Amino acid sequence: MKPFFASVLITLFSLHLAYAQEGYEYNDQIQVLYGVVFNGDTIPLLNIPEISITGHKFENRQDEYWYKYYLKRVKKVYPYYQIAKSVVNDLEEEKNNLKKKHFKKYKKNRKKALMNEFEKELRDLKISEGKVLVKMINRETGQNFYELIKEYNSGMKAWVYNIVANRYDYDLKAPYDPNSKENSMLELAIKQVLENNLRP
C-alpha cells in the first residue's frame, strides 16, 4: 500500500474512532453498518459516499466548483463517448475497405440503427452535457465536430447544426485545446474518468 493512501486510511480510521467515542451522530450520507469493540474502544464499519481523489491542489474554490461541475457531466456522457469513439473508428476502417458507393450505403444504415437506439437518450441530455460530449469527441479524434459532421453527413448539415449550436453559445468549428485555461478543469475531469474506467 502506498504511504499516501495508508495515511488517508489511518486518518479516516482515527476520525471515525474519535467520533464513535464521543457519540458523534453521522449525517445522512454516512451509514453505520455495525461496530466492533476492541480493547474497550468501539470501531465502527461505515458506508461513506464515494469521493474522487485527483491528487490536484485547486488554486481556488471556483476551480474546484468547475472541476466538480464537469466531473458530473463527463460521468454522465461517458457511455455515449465510448459509443461515438467506436463508431468513428469503425467508419474510418470501413471507409478504407469499401468502395465509395458501398461505404455511403453502410454509413446510412449505421446512422439509422444508431438513431433508432440512441436518439431519445441523446435528446434528453442537457445542453451542458451535450457540449461536454462534443468536446470529448473532439479531444479523442483531433477533429472539430463541424468537420466530423461534414465528413460523415454533408456540408449543408454541418452548416445548419453549427447555426443551431451558435444559438446555445457553442461553435462546432472550435477545436479542443486541452492546455487552455477554459478547458483546464474539464481536462482534469476527463482524465479522472478515463483513468477510473481503465482500471481493472
How would you describe what is shown here?
This protein has 200 residues and is mainly α. The protein folds into two domains: 3-47, no CATH class; 61-198, no CATH class. It is 66% helix and 8% strand. The chain has seven helices and two strands. The chain has helices at residues 3-21, 61-97, 100-123, 127-141, 145-152, 155-167, 184-198; strands at 31-38, 41-47. It has a two-stranded antiparallel ribbon. A hairpin with a 2-residue loop joins strand 1 and strand 2. The radius of gyration is 23 Å and the shape is globular. The chain starts with a helix and ends with a helix. Residues 1-26 have low confidence and may be disordered.
Shape: globular
Task: Give the total of beta strands.
Answer: 2
Order of strands across the main sheet: 1-2
- Spans where pLDDT lies below 50 across 5 or more residues: 1-26
Helix content: 55-70%
Structural class based on helices, strands and sheet pairing? mainly alpha
